[in-house]
Amino acid sequence: MKSCLMVLVLLLAAPLSLAKEIAITFDDSPRKAAGYFSGPERAQKLIAELKQHKVPQVAFFSNSSKLDEEGVKRLQAYSRAGHVIANHSHDHADFNRTGLEQYVEAFLLADEKLGQFENFKKLYRFPYLREGNDKAKRDGMRAALKKHGYSNAYITLNNYDWHIESLFQAAIDKKLAPDFERMGQFYVQVLMESIEYYDQMAQTHLGRSPRHVLLLHEMDISALFIGDLVDELKRKGWRIITPERAYQDEIAQYQTERVLPFNPGRIGEIARDKGQKKGLWHSTLDENYLEQRFISEVLQADMKTLL
């Protein structure tokens, strides 16, 4: 009898143990809001969607230069809802075009200003994912993070959601009235394609699916369609986890010895170090490709009629 019960327990637990895990993060908060939503509307909608779809916690990687009165209130709302506020530099500088000393100063200024938020954590997300285009800069910033008690908040799942947002806002501005059902389907499908691609790359080079970190941006389409994305992830067997849990994966300790001026994310780093030279960026990470799909799948128009 006991052996039968044990088998039953194992069978019931199996789907959970095989579930792939993913944490959700949003860059560039409090991002400019001058389109479909105002800043407060976006925050309210995003918080509500995350709660409704039972997302335990996300992280907002924030630029301290945007902390005007409204920006502070927006980050306070995210923090009070239980979400992490983290460091994305003061001014979102491109490390490839910025000296180490100036870059570290911006990092520390953001640390000071973002520390006011109750749920602030010492995680640093490099703007544009660019971690230094020479060894001195790369190693200098690694040392600065260590000195000030920070972890590198790498991503594993890359995409161009920011360009989808620009297409959406341009359509609204031009009064092209995108169909919101089609828009949601497009958003989810494009993101799932890249998520599944990078997960397969991880399984190829690691032999397993790691605890993934999804890069998104704090934008109107995120607020509108994050619930649809979460539902699709769960439907396909993914479990939504906290950023803290994701960064406990052993790949958090991985450091490439290569200098990568354009970083494809942690899975891309590992793949490159293991000899993969092509396909480090998924096909959806292409602006022209996304524009063509947006026009045909969302606007359902011929591109020639819109030029």
UniProtKB/TrEMBL annotation:
Name of the protein in question: Polysaccharide deacetylase family protein
Annotated keywords: Hydrolase, Metal-binding, Signal
Organism name: Thalassomonas viridans
A GO MF label: metal ion binding
One cellular component term from this protein's GO annotations in UniProt: membrane
Lineage: superkingdom: Bacteria
Domain (NodB homology): residue spans on this chain: 20-241
InterPro entries referenced in this protein's UniProt entry, alphabetically: Glyco_hydro/deAcase_b/a-brl, NODB_dom, Polysacc_deacetylase_ArnD
Signal peptide: 1-19
Pfam families in the record: Polysacc_deac_1
Gene Ontology biological-process entries: carbohydrate metabolic process
